[in-house]
Every structure is written in structure tokens, then in C-alpha cells.
Write a structure and sequence with these properties.
Layout: E1 5-12, E2 17-26, E3 30-40, H1 47-65, E4 69-73, H2 81-99, E5 105-108, H3 110-118, H4 125-136, H5 146-163, H6 175-181
Parallel strand pairs: 1-4, 4-5
Antiparallel strand pairs: 1-2, 2-3
Helix pairs in contact: 1-2, 3-5, 4-5
Length: 187
């Protein structure tokens, strides 16, 4: 792989389904989907067995695809404290698996990911999946599990953020600031 190519693993942590997507990025504006999938955890009744499975399966993904970087979705703040705790554990275990292989991790809030993919931080999972299909030029991508496309969205978001593709190399404080400085790119 050349210096300008890199592999990015995106993870959407979950305690029943963990979604992931892996892309190969070339240069500053080219991406190719390598794999899209989920780790199903519903079969495990014991929460600790779910965590063990997350650790082992994420480590396997890292060993198989050798990502240069990992982007992971940060837990959102919900009202159910127990659900938040379980989700935080799932994310932590996935992060530990990645770190055990010395791969850098970048964490993104769900709204940030949705904003970078669709331009709308409140976009639905279906809207994110549809936009990813267009961005990557995929005609045949299984949308059986939207958790997989959420993982993929984290990888694509990281590609955009680290390449400054969307902003032309400049960080902007808001969408209106971007529009103000890029009138020719917004229609």
C-alpha cells in the first residue's frame, strides 16, 4: 500500500449488534468499501460473554484487515443509565481490542457522524445508509443491519475529518460559516 493509501475501520458499538465498516482511502478524495458487517451478540445471555466476544471479534477484524486507524461512535446520552453503562462497556472493550494492536482510535459523536455524511446531525439511520451508498458508488450493499452502515459512517466521517475533504482544508465553526466561505460548493 502506498503512503497515500490507508485503511480505516469504523465501529458502531452495541451490546446486541456491533456494526462495522472498513474502507480503503486513497489520496484526499477517494474511498472504496472493503467490508461491511455486524457482530451479532443477541445469542449471548451473559453480558460478560458479549464483552468477551466483542473483544475477540474486533481484534480479529484488526488482524485481518490491518487498519491504519479506527473511528468509533461515542455513546449517546440517553435516559436509561443501565443501557448507557452497557453501551459504554461495549465501546471500551472494542477500544481495548484495537489498542492491544497499537492502532490509533478517533471518537466521534453520533451527530457529528450524521452531519458529515448527510449534512444533517439529526438524520435517520436510513438516510445515512442511503447517502453512504451514493458516496461510495455502491449498487449492491446489504442494508439488512443499519448498525453496519453506522459503523461505515464512522469510518467515512473520519476520512472526511482527517482529510479535510469537505472543507477544502479549512476547519469551520458551523455550517453557515462553511457556506459563507464556500458559496460555489453549496447549491
Amino acid at each position: 500500500m502506498s503512503q497515500s493509501e490507508r485503511v480505516i475501520l469504523g465501529i458502531d458499538p452495541g451490546t446486541n449488534i456491533l456494526g462495522y465498516g472498513i474502507i480503503k482511502a486513497s489520496g484526499k478524495n477517494s474511498m472504496k468499501l472493503l467490508v461491511l458487517g455486524v457482530i451479532e451478540l443477541k445469542k449471548y445471555k451473559d453480558h460478560y460473554l458479549k464483552l468477551k466476544s466483542i473483544y475477540e471479534r474486533v481484534q480479529h477484524l484488526v488482524d485481518e484487515y490491518l487498519p491504519d486507524e479506527v473511528a468509533i461512535e461515542a455513546p449517546f446520552f440517553g435516559k436509561n443509565v443501565q443501557s448507557m453503562l452497557k453501551l459504554g462497556r461495549a465501546q471500551g472493550v472494542a477500544m481495548a481490542a484495537v489498542l492491544s494492536r497499537s492502532v490509533p482510535i478517533h471518537e466521534y459523536a453520533p451527530r457529528k457522524i450524521k452531519m458529515s455524511i448527510t449534512g444533517n446531525g439529526a438524520a435517520s439511520k436510513e438516510q445515512v445508509a442511503l447517502m453512504l451508498k451514493k458516496i461510495l458508488g455502491e449498487t449492491d450493499f446489504d442494508q439488512k443491519y443499519l448498525d453496519a452502515t453506522d459503523g461505515l459512517a464512522a469510518a467515512v466521517c473520519h476520512f472526511y475529518e482527517s482529510s479535510n475533504v469537505l472543507t477544502g482544508g479549512t476547519k469551520h465553526s458551523s455550517w453557515s460559516d462553511f457556506v459563507k466561505h464556500n458559496p460555489d460548493r453549496v447549491k
